[in-house]
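pinging the channel bc i need a second pair of eyes. not urgent but kinda urgent?? the chain im working w is below, pasted from the shared doc
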Amino acid sequence: MEFSVRRLAADAGTLFSRAVQFTEEKLGQAERTELDAHLENLLGRAEATKHWTERVMKQTEVLLQPNPNVRMEEFLYEKLDRKLPTRANNHELLGECMIDAGHEFGPGTAYGSALIKCGEVEKQLGSSEKEFIHSSAINFLTPFRNFIEGDYKTISKERKLLQIKRLDLDAAKTRVKKARAADARSAAETELRIAQSEFDRQAEITRLLLEGVSSTHAHHLRCLNDFVDAQASYYAQCYQYMVNLQKQLGSFPATFSSNNNALTATSSASVSVAPPTLTPAPTPGQASPSLNELRSSSGPRKARVLYDYDAASSSELSLLADEVITVSSVPGMDSDWLMGERGHQKGKVPITYLELLN
């Protein structure tokens, strides 16, 4: 018990002398031991590394997940050590929406088919985005976070300990200056030698840790290269998906794909697809042998629409190029027309706009 009391009293005295030394330094009433220039430079470099590592890491997280609410949710799941629920990203949600719309309008129609193709590509883009985010999190963000939460915490801890040893050293120097009696001066000098030794040892430990920041820079450089490679691969993959999609959309009938030619001609897109050549619609009376066969048939048949057609009256049926409808001949109807059906819609259609299907 007596030893514990003496130990507590000694610790309290040490804390008091540190507090006095710190206060007097702030007030300019006491001198302080300055660190050597090399150590000061290393400390400044470590601070800059910590500052910019945190900023780059934060902005990368914003790039990979722009939604702050989702970022907060991911952070909480990580802290709770729980698995983040799987969710569709925006590309995948858009893809599902387009595919559902395409099936609603009909895969056999030009618009429905295009929606489905676009939706499938959007889902591929979403999958590529997930792979890019996963790769970046492992190969780029994790090493940066490990430095902040590991190496720099150790540096910060040893730096604080160095500050304490410096205060002890300067307090010992002050006691030597104030000592008058020979015994008191001898005891103060002994404390000073011990404080100087402990300060030098802690300064060396801190210096070695700070010099390790160079290795951190080299490691972060490799991580940066990995991040750039992942971005290049991701964007190249997305570019290829879109070029393939443009080719597929360009294969649709001209009247379908040329609606926005005037707009796209003025844009500065880096990838351009030549507008398809317009094929003039045939004039009435130029029916193919298959349509002549249809005229003589009494039953309904399937036919593919070759060109868009806008109904001129309520008795006619508007057509969209590439869609499939049911047609039949009606006694007494003009030979250039057939009766067309699409679901619950029914009306006359020009025979020369159709291609008979087997």
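so The longest strand covers residues 337-342. and Confidence is low (pLDDT under 50) at residues 254-287. — does that match what u expected or am i reading it wrong
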